[in-house]
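can u do me a favor
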């Protein structure tokens, strides 16, 4: 198991989602940190959506990565009009990645910060770095259900504004994520990459 506290958090969340999505059975075999299970070393053919999800996963530019240089990445955007989100007047923008994933962004009409995003669970969990949960869901049809993320209290870190409070809503799950500090381009201690 990797020596990092986030693995425990991700596993706890995967257990919650596994219980919600499987009627109480928890995550499937091999979903726990460290992998394993019956199909641990067997190659699996990926469909175009799965390949698109993997390409999307590689975008490490921040929580709104698909919007950054979207045209150069082959993504398309469409202004759907205006709407209220989180009590804020917003532009409602649909983004379709070149892999076919769709997301709706609600962007404040006053400061142009992202207030809320909506999309399929499989796309949104990638956006917030919870790919292990997405992998646990596999081909579960509920992975296509809508998930909503609200972004609050933007603060500047090294000149970059970041939402320090995020609210994830999916089915019976309503989770708050708070960020206390962000370090930009600082070296990472090798201890986080060692196996115990």
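np, heres the sequence
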């Amino acid at each position: 198991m990797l020596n990092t506290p986030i693995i425990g958090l991700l596993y706890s969340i995967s257990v919650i989602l596994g219980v919600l999505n499987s009627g109480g059975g928890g995550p499937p075999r091999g979903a726990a940190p460290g992998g394993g299970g019956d199909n641990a070393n067997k190659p699996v053919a990926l469909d175009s959506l799965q390949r698109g999800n993997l390409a999307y996963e590689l975008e490490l530019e921040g929580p709104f990565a698909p919007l950054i240089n979207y045209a150069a990445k082959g993504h398309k955007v469409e202004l759907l009009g205006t709407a209220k989100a989180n009590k804020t007047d917003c532009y409602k923008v649909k983004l379709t990645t070149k892999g076919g994933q769709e997301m709706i962004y609600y962007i404040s009409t006053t400061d142009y910060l992202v207030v809320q995003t909506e999309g399929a669970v499989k796309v949104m969990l990638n956006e917030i770095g919870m790919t292990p949960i997405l992998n646990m869901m596999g081909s579960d049809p509920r992975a296509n259900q809508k998930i909503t993320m609200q972004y609050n209290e933007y603060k500047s870190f090294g000149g970059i504004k970041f939402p320090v409070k995020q609210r994830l809503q999916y089915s019976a799950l309503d989770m708050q994520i708070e960020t206390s500090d962000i370090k930009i381009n600082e070296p990472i201690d090798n201890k986080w990459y060692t196996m115990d």
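The chain has a mean pLDDT of 73. hope that helps!!
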